[in-house]
Amino acid sequence: MDSTTLTVEEFLKSAEDFEQISDRLNDGWTLHKNSVDLHKSFIRKETFLVQNGEASDMVKVDYVIFYNLSYGVPSFSFNMWNSSGVFLTLDEIREMSFVRINKKDFYSIITQQEHPIFLRPYFVMHPCQTEDLLATFRKDSKNIIVTFLSLITPLIRLNLPLEYGL
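Now predict its structure.
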């Protein structure tokens, strides 16, 4: 196995450590470990975000990090719903991003597909992008999930407290 990929056991160890930090920070991430099939284990956080700077414009978000068997990396997926329970479109999500990114580039990073664990549509960050990101940082990372999330938080509006890096 090359240095850019993880085994499922390495992923789960990072996930367990990540959950412990989350518990200490009361940040809401929960590890769902599947003892029958470790590849179906995942970390999840459900939260709310303010969409257009208006407190009345809340969006429910379901973040899920799972192990991508094909690429040997953590994969990031999410869904967002408006206050009426309607899924946000990829364009609406792109508009919420902290970074300005054109459609073509955004769509090359994030797409909607059937979730490999839940078997229903989720937005998923392309794992090949994850592999490229982690190749640079894996060697110096204390926790690969923290490293990965810290790199993508501006793109998908995920609040990751700085205490995760300590």
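The mean pLDDT is 85.
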